[in-house]
Amino acid sequence: MRELFRIGHFSINIFGVMIAIGIITGILIMLKEAKRKGLNEDNVFDLAIYTIIAAVIGARLYYVIGFNFSYYLKNPLEIIFVNLGGLSIQGGLLGGIVFAVWYTKKKGILFWETADIFAPSIAIGQAIGRIGCDIFGTPMKTIYPWGIKVGSQIVHPAQMYEMVLDLLLFTYLWRKKDRLSYKGELFIKYIIGFSINRAIVEFFRTNPVIIKPFTIAHVTSFIMIVTAIIVGRIIKSKYRIEQDTENDTVKVPIYPVSYTHLRAHETSAHL
């Protein structure tokens, strides 16, 4: 990780700074959406902070178990040294979801409605965070102009690929946020979109392979997509949003009628 500056013995690196900026940006967007939708901003803020902590724990545990378990089994004390690297974004998402479901149920908060305002916020936070990531991808077989030289090799800027895909996902979610058919739809679409993005980028990264060329991240993405589709179908009918049909109402114009015309009409009716 590239160091920006030091405060005593503590090193401040660009990745940590960009993650912090991403988190702050995401929370600000989240609070704005909570206010717009009439949700309790304090509850949303508390949920966001606690979920971030749970996500970091989930990201670390998933990395330790799924990516380098044998090493950490021999060096268990290093599990707590998160500052040395080793976090899984998929593990962070799973950890955050599990905690958020439990927390919202405990506090009586509507999970799916709240999850919808989290979706675009998470996407933009991930995009910003990736800007500071210096974990590059596999060597390029064909050298493209955007390749990055690391040592003696030209490699794929995998983190930039993911950043661009996350920005596209955020743009889609932001445009979709006012056209939902059921509560939770935006979050379901985020899970599917994020998982597709991660699976694409994974072809340009080096991670533990399950069945060549598919890695543990591919398997996780597949499971998340299937689960999201199933859950989406279950909640679609249960949390349907009533569409506003006010603009579709046919309005019949009323024209002023004179007293003379009204009397003439009544007379002809009697005849």
How is this structure best described in words?
The protein is mainly alpha-helical. Helix content is about 60%, strand content about 5%. The strands form 3 sheets. The protein has a two-stranded antiparallel sheet. Strands 3-4 form a two-stranded antiparallel ribbon. Helix 1 packs antiparallel against helix 5, helix 2 packs antiparallel against helix 4 and helix 5 runs parallel beside helix 7. The C terminus is likely disordered.
Q: Any descriptors?
A:
two-stranded antiparallel sheet; mainly alpha; two-stranded antiparallel ribbon; single chain; globular; 271 residues
Q: Total number of β-strand segments?
A: 6
Q: CA-to-CA gap between the ends?
A: 96 Å
Helix fraction, binned, reads: 55-70%
Residue stretches low in confidence (pLDDT < 50, at least 5 long) are: 245-271
Largest sheet: 2 strands, antiparallel
Main sheet strand line-up: 1-2
Order of helix and strand elements from N to C terminus: EEHHHHHEEHHEEHH
User: What is the overall shape?
Assistant: globular
Total count of helical runs of at least 4 residues: 9
Structural class: mainly alpha
